[in-house]
Amino acid sequence: MGKRRLIFMMIMLLTLLSACNHREQSKKEAAQAPERGEVSGDQQEELEPTFTFPLTGLGTENEPNNRSIAVMINNHPKARPQSGLSKADIIFEALAEGEITRFLAIFQSEKPDKIGPVRSARDYFIDLAKGYNSLYVAHGYSPEAYTMLENGYIDHINGMQYDGTLFERTSDRQAPHNSYITYDNILKGAELRDINMDFAPHPLEFATNDEIQQIYGEEINQIDITYSKSNVFNVKYEYNNEIKKLLRYSDDEQTIDEDSNEPVLIDNLIIVEMEHHIIDNEGRRDINVTSGGKAYIVQNGMYREIAWNNIEGEIIPYENGEPIKLLPGKTWINIVPSLSDVSFKNM
Q1: In what residue span(s) does the DUF3048 domain sit (predicted)?
Q2: How confident is the model over 209-220, as pLDDT tens digits?
């Protein structure tokens, strides 16, 4: 065999072996690759959501262009457990009259089927709802709140005008602890009153993953807030280190949703000190929600004393003259007459 022919045959053999190896590697890669349209685990972690909800900072694939809805929710013992609380983006808790607290639950990212029991309006809760440009939902009103609503201060629907139509009474509880409304009926009420519901609230500022790692403070696993001499309206929060969220308790009973049994889970707890003044014989209050003042913030099982400011109607935590970014998730804001009503434990 000539030398030139031998070299040619060796080149052909090497080429054939290389092609076989390439085909085998391609088969392996094809077997390991996700099917068309699928995303591997590593790729999925890198994907950013298309949009984020303005009041939670959590991702969503659909643009969240719906208006927020702020509902007054009863916190009398006869109204517990409530419906819808676990789905609220932000909840304010403040004294209504006497030692009774009431909730203002703001919904935007989730739309619970049933919300309530719905209770009467107060002027400072109306101010807080307006800060998020929410549709305000209540059943009844104080004299001050009535004046604000009648003068068109905020878009609203009220059970005093729609009791038995948009608002429904349940038979298992006695009035005034049995008025409920569905999310669909809120939208029907908005349509009846020609209220625009097609715009999202101003987005809050949320921390990035790197910023979350820099959160600091004193470690705690329990927060107690005293609203009453008895324990009925006092609040306890417990930090669950496994899920990295706060659980809430009233009168030592965990706050859950009546219909789904879902617990209220909180990512940001802000406790703000505001001026309180009793204004009538019923024990109703005027609460100064505008001036700013002292506060605590609880995030990732740590707390520290900060300040709060009212920025265009929103209650924003501040530190060293700068707004504090929230953890993506749900926020609960407790309004207290004094920070001395708050205690922290690390057991």
Answers
A1: 55-194, 223-333
A2: 999 999 999 999
